[in-house]
Design a protein that fits this description.
The complex is a heterodimer of chains A (about 110) and B (about 120). Chain A is mostly beta strands. In chain A, about 0% of the residues lie in helices and about 60% in strands. Chain A contains no helices and eleven strands. Chain A has strands spanning about 5, 10-15, 20-25, 30-40, 40-50, 55, 65-70, 75-80, 85-95, 105, 110. In chain A, the strands form two sheets. In chain A, strands 2, 4, 5, 6, 9, 10 and 11 form a seven-stranded mixed β-sheet that branches. In chain A, strands 1-3-8-7 form a four-stranded antiparallel β-sheet, with no helix packed on it. By secondary structure, chain B is an all-beta fold. In chain B, about 0% of the residues lie in helices and about 50% in strands. Chain B contains no helices and twelve strands. Chain B has strands at about 5, 10-15, 20, 25, 30-40, 45-50, 55-60, 60-65, 75, 85-95, 105, 110-115. The termini of chain B are far apart. The mean pLDDT of chain B is about 90. Classes of the chains: A mainly beta (about 110), B mainly beta (about 120). The interface of A and B includes residues 4, 58, 90, 99 and 103 of A.
Chain lengths: ~110, ~120
């Protein structure tokens, strides 16, 4: 979905490095989400934000932090990367109304050596 | 907590074969149900949704019916094409009052490969 842009698309880095993944959206949605995808595990929620002043932990937030810089921007940081954080990361947005679908970016493939 | 279980994959079919991917869920209250599709190298896209019992979602020849009595939302297509090869995810979102309100809970995904 071109309305949700993730950067970078691919990143290879070393254990212990700090990494930031960025997400920006032009859909005007209040809600934003970060997921990681691992083979056979589906997508798991890391953090979510229902508006600029609202940040909530998801089911696997340990080792991650986020910042909601504006309605349109939501970044995910790995303070000290470790190899088991190697995964495909997705940002998503949704409208505030009930039953609205989420719209996903194309993902960031992160490899930690 | 809420959970979604999809049938084990991968699924391999010949073109024009019938497809069913099973999905069952556990949730409090009455969640909304979704099927997402992920094509290679891309993010997830909404395929169809249903927001209440007995609703049928449909799109691109795919259908799924929200069955409250069996807590299921199976994805079906009568005749698959090579272009349907992708990963399919079943997901739920709790409505207001549910424990996962505003968030999606995903199944583990089912890889579908369609051969000519």
């Amino acid at each position: 979905d071109a309305d949700v842009t993730q950067t970078p698309r691919n990143r290879i880095t070393k254990t212990g490095k700090r990494i930031m993944l960025e997400c920006s959206q032009t859909k005007g949605h209040d809600r934003m989400y970060w997921y990681r995808q691992d083979p056979g595990l589906g997508l798991r929620l890391i953090y979510y934000s229902f508006d600029v002043k609202d940040i909530n932990k998801g089911e696997i937030s340990d080792g991650y932090s986020v910042s909601r810089q504006a309605q349109a921007k939501f970044s995910l940081s790995l303070e000290s990367a470790i190899p088991n954080q190697t995964a495909l990361y997705f940002c998503a947005t949704s409208d505030f109304q009930e039953n609205q679908p989420q719209h996903f970016g194309d993902g960031t493939r992160l490899s930690i050596l | 907590g809420d959970s979604v279980t999809q049938m084990e994959g991968p699924v391999t079919l010949s073109e024009e074969a019938c497809l069913t991917i099973n999905c069952t869920y556990t949730a409090t209250g009455y969640p909304s149900l979704f099927w997402y599709v992920q094509y290679p190298g891309e993010g997830l896209q909404l395929l169809l949704k249903a927001t209440k019992a007995d609703d049928k979602g449909s799109n691109k020849g795919f259908e799924a019916t929200y069955r409250k009595e069996t807590t299921s939302f199976h994805l079906e297509k009568g005749s698959v094409q090579v272009s349907d090869s992708a990963v399919y995810f079943c997901a739920l979102s709790a409505n207001a009052g549910g424990t996962s309100y505003g968030k999606l809970t995903f199944g583990q995904g089912t890889i579908l490969t369609v051969h000519p």
